[in-house]
Amino acid sequence: MAYFILKNFVLGPILHVLFRPWIRGKQNIPKSGGAILASNHLSFSDSIFLPLKVTRPVTFLAKSDYFTGKGLKGAITRWFFKATGQLPIDRSGGKASEDSLNTGLGVLERGLLLGIYPEGTRSPDGKLYRGRTGIARMVLQAKVPVVPVAMIDTEKVQRIGQTIPKIRRVGVVMGDQLDFSRFAGMDGERAVLRAVTDRIVYDIMRLSGQQYEDVYASTVRNRMAR
To answer: Which pLDDT tens digit goes with each residue over 182-194?
Structure first.
């Protein structure tokens, strides 16, 4: 209920007036049933503008830090993420990765739309980076279609570390559905997982026009921090 109210009567109308978001390819989203929206990740605001332009509710797997913040800011952030239907996941690896996979599968089994950023984290410089194969495991186990998504100009609205967004027009481009049913039962094959992931990221690159780097975004962010 909170999701519906925020999107249609509170935040949604304000965001439409200020940022005038546009969308192309909306017809590629399945009208019912589980599906993955696989998007590039340029800004924190991607998780706001993508569901804003999609008729069906979209659930994201958000890092658990957003749900554990302290003080007033932490409380507001926690409320916002819960109200917009986002689920906390631990990205530390190992068993946490398996738990995250199961959380995503649960969303898809309920016939919902799941938003995923294959890069695993925001791009530090606007380029598109190598995808994590967790998305491929989820696709093959859930047996759902993937809709590649390109967020356009959201990094101009809110760069990493920027608290107050700038007013810029943003867009969403959705590609044709990808069907990987031919790989059913092969989610234990590393080569298959990499091939499926790379195909998804390739379609995102084609839609977004971003320069691609065959390295993980987290590696680049750590290198830049040093």
So the answer is: 999 999 999 999 9
Is 53 within 8 Å of 27 (Cβ atoms)?
Answer: no
- What DSSP line would sit under 86-122, residue for residue? -EEE--SSTHHHHHHHHHHHHHHHTT-EEEE-TTSS-
Find out whether 62 and 51 touch, Cβ atoms under 8 Å. no
| CB proximity list for 33: less than 8 A, separation 6 or greater | 111, 144
Instruction: Dump pLDDT digits (tens) for 115-149.
Output: 999 999 999 999 999 999 999 999 999 999 999 99
Q: How far is CA 21 from the centre of its chain?
A: 17
**Collapsing DSSP states into helix, strand and coil, what is residue 3?**
helix
Token pair listed for 153: 């100009």
| Residue-wise pLDDT tens digits, 37-89 | 999 999 989 999 999 999 999 999 887 777 888 888 788 878 887 888 788 87
In degrees, to the nearest 5, what angle opens at C-alpha 2 toward C-alphas 56 and 24? 30
Cβ contact 151:47 at 8 Å: no
Asked if 118 and 132 touch (Cβ cutoff 8 Å), the reply is: yes
Cβ pair 106, 100 in contact under 8 A: no
Whole-number Å distance between alpha carbons of 183 and 203: 18
Residues with Cβ within 8 Å of 167's Cβ and at least 6 positions away in sequence, in order, are: 18, 19, 157
Token pair 């340029």 is found at 42
